[in-house]
Structures are given as structure tokens and as C-alpha cells.
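LOG
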Amino acid sequence: MPDLLLELFSEEIPARMQAKAAEDLRRMVTDRLVAEGLVYEGAKAFATPRRLALTVHGIPARQPDLKQERKGPRVGGAEAAILGFLKATGLNSLDEAKIQRDPKGDFYIALTEKPGKPAVDVLAEILPLIIRTFPWPKQMRWGELSAKSSALTWVRPLHSIVATFGIETEEPEVVQFDLSGVSVGQTTYGHRFLAPDAIQVRRFDDYVAKLQAAKVVLDPERRKEIILADARQLTFAQGYELVEDPALLDEVAGLVEWPVVLMGSFDKDFLSIPDEVIRATIRANQKCFVVRDPKTQKLTNKFIITANIEASDGGTAIIAGNERVIRARLSDAKFFYETDLKTKLEDRLPKFEQIVFHEKLGWESDHVARVERLAVELALLINADPEKTKRAARLARADRLSEVVGEFPELQGIMGKYYLLAQGEDSSVAAASEEHYKPQGPTDWVPTNLVSVAVALADKLDALRGFWIIKEKPTGSKDPYALRRAALGVIRLILDNNLRLNLVELIWKLVRRGIQIDQHPSSEGKKHHLLLNVVVTNFVVEQKMLEFSEPVSEVAAQAEADKFASEFTSKIAADLLNYLAERLEGQLRDQGARHDLVKATIDGQDDLLMVVRRVEALGKFLDSDDGKNLLAGTKRANNILAIEEKKDKRKFDGAPDAALFKLDEEKALARAIAEVGPEASAAVAKEDFAGAMTAMAKLRPAVDAFFDKVKVNDDDAAVRENRLKLLNEIRAATRAVADFSKIQD
């Protein structure tokens, strides 16, 4: 079947846009093909600084014929409806329509057949539309037609389009369409400097080969491979090691069509600057990689350049130009660093009183004070040094006010560590400056220094508490304050460090501490009102108006305010805890745990570490025959109870009456529950979840026998109720370990 080759050749496309643009092109073209009935076999898109390219193979040569059936008005219906039906369907008269018999009346049916078009004609229709509606974040107009609002827009001036269609063994056909004067054909161009002449191409394989000969590597992944391999080889030959940087590699591969790797150097005096500052300077200003000594793991005074040209002088001028710029930038960085060292971080803290953390949550200084207080409380709970923790929490964000972090925000925390060590602070206090931001993603490392852990938890919990109170929690598509990352950070800090924290109590206290209730009593004739406001940093986030038959006293007003504060706190705390539970469920699922086991164990639990251990033990138990059979029996008991409780509109709680047991299987089940319940509960209390599962396994034979021999809904009402109570005992006993009703079979 035929293949499509499409290339959009333009001025330089920003590197940060290329990957998404290539994917957008593939998606838009293939979606439209499928919508037109042209189901393809495969597609792949590519991007270079000057072109987007797409190959789609296995496209049918022609659309299938489309048969449509359209229901019309009722036979004998209004004349206007019939005329409208004929016009809409293209029928000349009702004689061309069919009649559909229906109990509600007979209807006219129009059967129309729309013949399919050649695929090349379909492409000629859809490609210009796709190009005109391409979702670039920023677009421009150019040339003589730019004054017109209907002018073609693109990320950079679009010069030419290659659009060919055909099978491999034949000469391809050019997809002909008009697009604001941009030529469409088989002509593209090679490297801007090394091979700028026009190239005639036929289909994708031919296109790739001719571009390669014209010094253009089409595939960005191939360009990345070339850069990485050549950089590794060049540094290894000099006895050094490349500091690999995947994000920078992606960017650099988007800046060149013909990558040429070179090595430059800078003065060794600049090595007195921290490695992170050198790397940030060279990376940000010249998009170059840094190099380290494999023995010391410290940076050397070398760097790797990726040029887009094979220079006649071997790259000497390119290296010299980069060295000149990097020398100037490192001079600035050295000046900033040495200037920062002259002022202690603590002396910079007053500036936080002039920087807004969030308009509804106060100044940066308020946030620091909140984190400092909470970090000390957490330090006492996790056995961290409270004085060091207090000091670390106070200074952890202070490097944001430094010159280096002002120039390179990505170094916040890292520079704080250097500055605090330089001014003689304790190493754990200094480490917390960097580590309290951790973890910053699912693959980022988690600090183990307890001072850092306490500050990190405090920082993240304060942010979650604050933004939940002011109703700025994340949505499915928006998370401007990185609260999802903060929640996952809290979970990983707790689990990876085996911390025992009562999150329910902790978050409730945090939320209550974060609000105040403003009272406004008023009277209008015989009506007396009390307006209560939940206030955070002078912003009202929730209101409640109460009416009284007589003036409200100060004591009564305060009681209502306390009640309102408690209700609001409980609502916000419960919602935040539920959010943390959802994030924990997602994380455990990503690690291979069953989501239903998490749901079965997490309700009512305030200790995340214990939830994880319960899930692990429950998973192992349910993999055994005892676990599978007990689950089946317990779910059967739950289902019967649910039905009967709904029917009788009451619960069957309370202990069953042993005198009403008629069968041995009832007595055996009661004895098993009496033995297993306390044993499982005792094991759970000792956090021996494996032991609890072992105890639960003893129920299995008695439950199996009960359901095999006993009729629950006995004709005797008293016996029926007693047996339902016995089923409730099964449910109660198993819930000491987990809610089996939430576990899938």
C-alpha cells in the first residue's frame, strides 16, 4: 500500500518545541486519516532545527465507499418535514426512499452511498487544514501577505513543503494543495552551510539518505547518540569523564542538524567556585557539558561543545569563541559567590518580610516561622535534635536571597549548604538546606538525616495545610504549587525512613492552628445574627451566618465560633488526609501492590508505615489457598448481610445466642471466631501482621463448613437473626485485619 512523506521546512524551530511539534504532527495527520476511513499501518515523526517530517506507511490508495441510512419523517407526515428530508438526503422523490415498519408507525428511510475518493485527494484536503491549525505555542506571520489577518502563521517562516504519496515500486505522486504561496513538491534543502543546495526526494528512505549526504541527521535520537558517544570518547581520550545531562542532551540535539563535538577549557582559578555553580554557568549560557576527573569526581577546567558545522580550521575559532564567553560568565559567577560569602545567611532573613509567599498565606517570613515551629514538633516525634532542627528550618530557605541563586534559581538549597558550611554551621544544619527540598520526584533520593527529614516534612506539610485551607488544592490538570509532589514527598519521607506518625492528629492540629474565627454579632429589629468568618492572613475563606431569637451572649458566640472552627478543621483535615491516602494508593500501585488491598487496609489508619506493612502481609496471605477461600467466604457473608440488612432496615450486630445454635457447624464457627478474633487483634496490636494473617487462616475450615451445611435464612425468625449475627461476627473478626468487602476476587 502507498506511503506518505511530509516535510515542513522552515527557519529555526526552538529546541524546546520540537519533540511536541513532531508528536502533534503525527497525531493530527493520523487522526484525520482514520476519521476519513484511511486506516494506516504505522507512522513516525521527526524534528530538526529547520524541519518537521512525517512518514505514514500502509495507507489505502482509496477511501472505502460510505453507506449511510437516515431516518426521515413518519409516512403521511407534514409536507414541510418531507421536503426537508428530501433536500437533506438528496433524494428526488419519496419513491427513492424505503419505508421502515415500526409499531409506533411507519417511517421513511433514505439509503445513500457516498463513493470513496482517492487517498491523495483526501490528503490534499486535510494537510493544508492541519498546517493552518497547527498548535504552536507562539506563531508569526511574514512576507507581503503578513498584513492580512488570513495570512499563514507558523512558529518561524515556512519556506517549503514536501508531500509525496505512492507505493515503493512506482514514482510517487505529489500531493497538490495551495498554502499561501508556500511551494509544495519534492524539493527540500540540506545543511544551511555545509550543503545548502536543493535536493529532490521521492519517498522516506530516499529522503533520509539524501539528507544524510547533505549533512542533516533527521532522527533526533540518532543525533543524541552521536553527541553522547563522541563526547564520551573525547573526554575518555583526555583521561576525563563526561558529566552526562539528559535534559541538556535533548536541548543540544534540537540545536544542531549535523553534530560535531569539540572540547574547550577555562582557567583553573575558576575551580575554586562550587562545581554546581560552574556547571550551571556553562550549561545555561553556552549549552555545554562539563567534564570531571574520574578519580576525584571533581570538575576539571574542560567543557564539551556541540557545534553544528565541520569547520575548516578544525573548530579552533568555535572553541575560542565559547571559551571567551564562558570566561566572562565564570568571572561573574565567581564574583557573585565571593560576594555571597561576605554576608551570613541569617543576616539576609529580614528581606523575607518584604517577599510574598502567597497573598492569602502571608510573607516568606511567615512561612519560615510556621515551618520552624512545626519542624521542632516533628523533631521531637522522630528523635531528631530539636535545636539543630530549629536552626536548620530557620536558615533552609535563606540562600534564595543570595546573588548566585538569584542568577541560577535551580541552585537553591545547594548554595545554602555551601554558605552554611563556610560560616561554620553544623553539617546536619547545612545539609538540610539542600535536602529539605527532597524528594522532588518519584526517582529522586530521600534524605535520611533526621534533621533534614523533619524540616522537609514541615515544609511540605505547611504548604499542603495552607493551600488546602485557602481552597487552592490541585486539580486533574493544574497543580501550580506542586502540591501533588509535596504530598508524595511526605509519603516517601515517612515510608523510606520508617517513621511512626499519627497523621490524623498531626494534620488536624495543623489545620486548626492555621485559621482564626472572626465573629460579627448584629441585630435588626427582632432578628439577631452572628456572622462567623474563617480567616487566614486577613482573607476570609469561608463564612457562616447564624440566626438567634435574642441577642447572642459573648459566651454563646465563642461557643459557636469554637464549634464552627472544629467543623471547618475536620472537613479540611479529612479532605487532605484523603488526598494523601490517594497518593499512597497510587504509589503502592506503581510499586506493584494491588490497589484494592490498599483500599481494604487504609480506612481509619493514621500510620502510613503500618498501612504498607498490612498491604504486604495481606497480599501474601491472599496468595495462599487459605487466604483465597477465606476471602470468598467472608465476601459471601458480607453479601448476605448487605441484602438482609437492607431488607430488614437494621443491623445484625450484637453477640449471637449460643442456645439458638442448632447445628454443629454453627457451634464450630462461633468457637473459631471466639478464638481467632482476639488472637488476630492481639497480633495487630503488636504490629505482627503476618501473625494476624496466620490467625485468620484458622477461620477458613469453619467458614467453609458453615456455608456448606447451614441455611442462613432459616424459617424460624429467631434462628435466622442469630445466624445473621454470626455472619456479622465473621465480618467483625476479619476487619481487625482489613475490610475484606473492598478486596476483589
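LOG (cont.) second protein
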Amino acid sequence: MRLITTIYRFEQDLVRNLNELKSNRYKRDLNFRITSDIWFRDTIWDFKHLNKLNRSPEIYRYDFNKIPSAYHLYVKTVILNQLLINKNRFGSIHPTFSTLKSIIKYLEHKNIHDIRLLDLKIIKVFFEEKKAYCTNNYIETLKLAYYKLITAIEDIDSIDVKPIKNYLDEITKECYKAKTTTAKNQYIPNAFLNQIVSIALSDIEDINLNKDRRIVAALIILLAETGMRLEEATMLETNKLEEIVVGEKKHYYLKFRTFKIQEGTFESKETVTWLSDKAVKAYKIAETLVNEIIDSLSEGTKNRVMLTLRNKGALKPRLNNSKIKSLNKDIDDEELKLLDKQARKYLFTSEKYGLKKHGTRLLRDDIQRFFFIHEQDFNINKVPSAEIHNLKTFKITSESKYNKFVNVEERKKVTYEEIQKRKYWYVNPHMFRVTVCTKLFLQGVHLDFIVKHMNHLSEDMTTYYDKSEEFQDKLNESIQILSSISNEKGLIETDPAKVPDPFLHSELQNENFTNNIKKINDFLSENNLNIEKDMDKVLKLLKRTQSPLTENEFGVCMRSVIHGICERRKYFSSSADYYHIGVQLPTFKFIRYSYERFKQKKQIVEHNKIIATQNNKFTSEYEREVKALKHFSKKTLKTEIELLEEYIEEKGKEAAIRDFPDTLHIVNQLESVKEEIKPWIV
């Protein structure tokens, strides 16, 4: 209850009330206080008093009127489980609520008005229909929300949902398999990215454009140059630019708030990102535009802004001027100065209302409108044909969006029916983040810097972004090269004359390269080894060749052996298994594989430690592997062991082995496993 009691100020007995809700036969009549203003049976839960940082109000608001009453109990239980048990923050919970609304809308369409009618057949039909046109990522999102709903039903009504859960587990496996074979990150082609930034730069300098458009263009440049998250961009503040001087050159960095943080008692923290010259220019112009917006407001609008800020957003922009004047009388000069400063606080400010615009949805729409307006300014022919598929397209599918994107004059020239038929090239905001991270990695920037610059929670999240299609192609190329220079004996060819490829012919002129290959060939010949399968003996091989080893999904990557091909540290195994921070599940059913994973990782660390002692240039490789192993041990394996122990304490060892046969080995040597991981969770 640490997070809940200190930040959300929930009643101390709320967990007890939640448990009673799940067990009491009169649960549908229960009502209890959630906060001082919210009761369980309320149809709207609005936690706006917790919105201390002026984030989008919708994150904190749950309107159950939009959900059939038959589902209220279960959806509310899901939300409380997220808040109390999983200790998630509102920014993470509201997307689940939105997904559940979509799921329940489908069930309502199928006339499932009683939860007892929800069976495996209905759920299978739902997912089969969705698979026809939804991405694997969205299918996985639907699955996770469904799993939470089914668990709530199980808790409250004691209905056997095991067949449904088994099916949902299969969905997870399918999505995982599809990801490992087709996964690619959305890397924006340079030819298109350069055009985006260039056009946005023109917009911010064009004094004939309205200020809203110029501010959006500035935010697009900041997204493209820094890779910050979309909500972080909507929350950027003025007067946060700092500079330092190194030698004779000035460097700029920007302070901002991030909401993607580790466990703790706060919903955000201040962090920094370094800015390019283009980003600095965009930020400074946006600051100027905000000041111009506030300075140019009419007296009535400015009073409205001040009163709205004073009442923390409680007053609406449509409040009439006479009412505003009467309310404004008790604001003294000192308070007025503070409110004026507050009015100039955020970059994402509305020119019409003089207030901060709330929510990522608004900025998403504004960014999409940028691509719509500049349709004719982009030269798509400059984008290599092999990279076109990395771009996205969108269509104007509603008349309201047409009215928003097309001004009154333009509507006389082009009708909604005409616009409706067109497709427009664009990139979604997250693609900027992927691209910035991947570019830094490909440029050889140290991973520790990337983690800090991108404000990632761990190296594992960084390496997930690095898995762009371009990067994946480079890895495939490395494997193909190894295969292409093997001879009929299964050894790697070292004679340049027998290698027709000019690049490889050149590489084989490198003495260090060929010497390492000869050592590998000698070892392979003597031991009849398969380098991809015999990991233990391959480690010995690498020890002899003085090469640090870094895992990836293809087997091994030997930087000093495949000189010029595996030119960057390629570490992707973490995004291909449960080692990835975002895939940690509240279950111990995969503990066997996690333990095997731990042993593999430890083996690699031990190998790299020996290599690092022999050559200190490999120390950073060793230290990164140590950090990765510690993170995995603490985040995944320790958690799974604790869950397993809880299960054993409640039901006994025999039940654990019976219900989860894969845990047999772990259950029988649990204490020794705990001792083995103990040094890595300190």
C-alpha cells in the first residue's frame, strides 16, 4: 500500500474492501469509499485532484456510463486491481479501461448481456475476427485486457475460466512467435525524415502561419531530433533550456518531465535531453510564440485564462465576460503576476484560448494535419523503394476530421467525398523515437548515453528499439557472409583467391581477420563442432581468440572475428524472451526457462570477465553484461521465485508440481536456486 497511501490517499482499508468485494455473496450491493469524493458504486470515477502536473484530464476520469451495467462490477474490479495490487499509475491504467470498453462493445453487439453467456466460443470468434485486420501488438493488447477481465470474473463469481485462460495463453504464444519472425521497428527513412524536419523548419519561420501551426511544427522538430515520448512533448515547459560550454563550443540541453519511471512514490520525474541546433531553434521560437499568444489575448480572454488557472481548470472557456469580470475583482496584482507566469508555462498552448492543450490525442491529430497540409511538399520519389514500406498512410474517414483539417476557403475547392478517397503519407510520433535511438546506436554512441538520452528504464528497452529493419538486415548479412565463405569441409575459407565477393576478398586481406578465422577452423576441425549449437565449447573458442561474446538470436556475434561486419554491439536476446522488462508476467509458469536463461547469462558474464582481465578494452562489454544479468535476476527470476513460494505455501509442493509440471526441477532444488541467484540481486 506504499504508493496508494502516500500518493493516491486511498482509505487504509480499501484493500480489505476489495477482497470483501470478491468474496461477499452480496457483492453487488456493496459500496465503499475509494477517495473522499469517490464511492465504488459511482458511475463516474474522477481522480482529477491527483492531477498535480496538469496532464490530460481523461487519464484520471473513468466514465462507466459508457459501459453496460452488467459489466460495471468487473471493470471496476480490474481498475482497483491495477491500482492496489499491481500498483500501476493512472497513465498505464486508462488504456486498459479504453480497451475494455472496446471489448465490451463487441460483446454487447453479440447480445452478451449476462456474464454467464460469455464462453470460449465467443472469445475465439472475437480474436479470429480481429486477427484479420489488426496488428500483433494490438491483438496482444486485447488479450491482456481480456485476461484481466476474465480474472476479475473468476475472482468475483468463482466461474471456471481455465479453458479461456489457456486459449488466451495460446494467443500470447502466437503473437510472440509472429514477433520473432516478422518483428521490425519502424525506422523512418532518412530521405523522408529530412523532408519532415526541413518543412517543419519552414513552418516555424513563416510568420504568415497561425501560431498553433508553428508551435506544432516546433514540437515535430523536437520529437524528430530528441526522440522524446509524445506526452513528454505535450508537457514541455518554457524556460527549461540550459547551456554548458565545452572548450569554445556551447552545448544545449532541455529539462522536461517524464512519466515513464521505475517503481516509486511519484508519477513523474525531471530529466534532460541534449538538443541539436535545429531543436534549440525550434524550442526558442516556440517559447516566443507562447509569449506572443498571451500578450495578444483580448482583455476578456486573458481574464478567462487567469481565472481558469486560478481555479485549476474548473472554469470553461465559454464563461461569459460579465461573469468573468465579477470573479476577477478579488485577484490582486501579485497573484495576477503569478497567474500570468503560469499562463506562459507550456509550449503546447492554444492560440485561441490561451490555455495549455491537453492530451496526446490533440497533438497526434495536429501532427497528422501537418502531413495532410504538406501533402504536395513531400517528394516521395526521393525515398528508396526498399524503404517505402516503412512509411504509413492515413485517410480522412470522417466529415468532422475533414472540417478540422480543411479550412473554409479550401472546402470550396475540394469536397469531403474527394478527400475521402485519398491516402496521405505520414509517420506516427513513436517512429521518431525509434529512429533517434537506432541512429545513435548505429553511430557507435555508447549504450549508457543512449539509455540516459532516451530516458529508458533499462538497457533492454534500448536494445528493443535498436531492432529496426535496417539493423536486422545487417545481422542477416553477417550470418550470410559466414555461410558464403565456408568451403566443402564446413570450414571458413581463408584464401582470398577462392572468394569471388569483392568485399570479402578485401576483408580477407586483413591479417587479424584471417588469423582469427584460422583459430576457429582449427578448433572446429579438432572437435567436430557446430558453432551455433555447442555453446560451452564455443565459449572456449572465443576465449582463445580473445573475443568478447555478445548473444543475439542468431547464436553468437564475434566482433573481432567478423571484422567490419558485426561492427556494433548487437544485443537482442532480451527482446526475444521473458528477459525483456515489458514482458514480465505475474506468473511463475515460465520459471524453468527463466532459470535456464539465468545460467546462460551467467556463463557469458564469466567468459567476458576472463576476456576483460586479459584485455581491458573489453571491460565495458563485461560490465554491461553484468548489469543486464543483475536486472534480469531481480526483475524476472526473483519475482517468479517469490510467486512460486507463495503458491507452495498456500497449496503445497505436490500441488505446484501437479499443476505446473515444468516447475519440478526448480521446486525440488528451490533453496539452492535462491542461493545461486543471491549474488545477482543485491
